[in-house]
Design goal:
- By secondary structure, the chain is α+β, with helices and mostly antiparallel strands.
- It is 43% helix and 17% strand.
- The chain is built from eight helices and eight strands, in the order H-E-E-E-H-H-E-E-H-E-H-E-E-H-H-H.
- It has helices spanning 2-34, 87-91, 95-115, 144-165, 182-185, 215-223, 238-252, 259-262, and strands at 55-58, 62-65, 77-81, 117-125, 137-143, 172-174, 189-195, 199-205.
- An eight-stranded antiparallel sheet has the order 1-2-3-5-4-7-8-6, sandwiched between helices.
- A hairpin with a 3-residue loop joins strand 1 (55-58) and strand 2 (62-65).
Length: 264
Amino acid sequence: GRGRRRKMRSEEELVMEQKREDGRKRRRERLESDGLDSCRWCYANLQRFKVKHLVVALGETWYLSLPHTVEKVQGQCYLAPIDHESAAAIAEGGPLQKEITKWKDNLARFFFEKEKKEVLFTETALLRHSMPHHLRIECFPLQRRDAEVAPSFFRQAILDTANEWSENPRLVEYLTESGKPVPIVQKFSYFSVEFGRAGGFIHIIENEGRFDLQFGQSVIASILSLSPPSQRPQRHRPEIEFQLMKNFAGRFEPYNWTRELVEP
């Protein structure tokens, strides 16, 4: 009867919670053993850095969060693997690549259908460090008129500055429908920008030390005629952060595919 179903559902929830706790424990142990406990993007570290409340949704291999500092554009967010993964992991295919496609598709639909905006995805992959940077994809929703000029702004910005951080002048254009830029991401550090789900640019970074980690945000600021990003970005007050996350999560709810992971 109804009471039995409720009891069974409760038992299923307990089993699922225990599995999650076991997973969290394994992640904490891995972070400590690998010296990754200082990474601000590993999900197991978010609580310690007081940014876990900014997480909007948790998938199987990725999570969606609002930025840790004051956003450059309304609705700005980022995607990152739950574990410490570099860009090379996506190039290898598997669960990471499959799930990020779902995240991007749903975010693009969300911003287009709910807010009449196009979303840009930027990524900076630095692979040559002794500890590769935690993969993170920043998402910038733009008004359509701004999104239309974004390709020309990014193309020009890359061509104007690339000689500072790369000896290779090649700018690669790719269409997402034809697949990911595997030959580059498997071997080189790079910067990429994707315009909605239609296509984008990717450029090799040969001199990581000279590359501006805020390059993508700087171009976005230029498109919107905003001041350049600060070298010491500020945070919102905690109560504002909670409200921003609650508002975003409420609007995103119909597009939050992760609900199917927890619903019995």
